[in-house]
Write a structure and sequence with these properties.
Blueprint lengths: L14 H27 L22 H28 L9 H18 L2
Helix pairs in contact: 1-2, 1-3, 2-3
C-alpha cells in the first residue's frame, strides 16, 4: 500500500526539462521542414490522365541537392528526438514522471521514413 503522507518537494520543471520541451519543438519544426523539402525534391507524378495534355513534362528523378537536404533534416530530427528521449528517460525517477508521447511518436515516424527510404 503506497504511503500518501509524503511531501511533494518538486517545485515544477527545472531548466533542463524546459530545454527538453524546446528541443522537442525544434525537432517538430525540423520534421515539418523536411516534409516541405521532400515535396520539392521528389519526382513529379502525373496523378491522372486528365491532368496531362501531352505537352507537359514531368520530372522523373530526385533533385539531388534537395534530396541530400531532406536526408540531413531527417537524420538531425532523429538524433534530436532520440537524445531528448534518452535525457527524459534518464531523468524520470518517480512513478508520477511521465513519458513525453509526442517525442516518441516523432521518433517512430522519422525512423519509419528512414527505413522506407534505405530499405528496398
Amino acid at each position: 500500500m503506497p504511503k500518501t503522507n509524503r511531501k511533494e518537494r518538486r517545485k515544477g520543471p527545472d531548466t533542463l526539462q524546459r530545454l527538453i520541451v524546446l528541443v522537442s519543438l525544434l525537432a517538430w519544426v525540423i520534421f515539418i521542414s523536411a516534409l516541405v523539402v521532400y515535396h520539392y525534391a521528389r519526382p513529379e507524378i502525373a496523378y491522372s490522365a486528365f491532368q496531362s495534355s501531352g505537352t507537359e513534362v514531368y520530372r522523373d528523378h530526385w533533385v539531388e541537392n534537395l534530396r541530400q537536404l531532406f536526408l540531413l533534416l531527417l537524420w538531425t530530427c532523429c538524433g534530436i528526438t532520440l537524445g531528448g528521449m534518452l535525457i527524459n528517460w534518464s531523468r524520470s525517477r518517480r512513478r508520477t514522471d511521465y513519458f513525453k508521447m509526442n517525442t516518441g511518436l516523432l521518433a517512430a515516424i522519422v525512423i519509419a521514413i528512414l527505413l522506407f527510404y534505405y530499405l528496398p
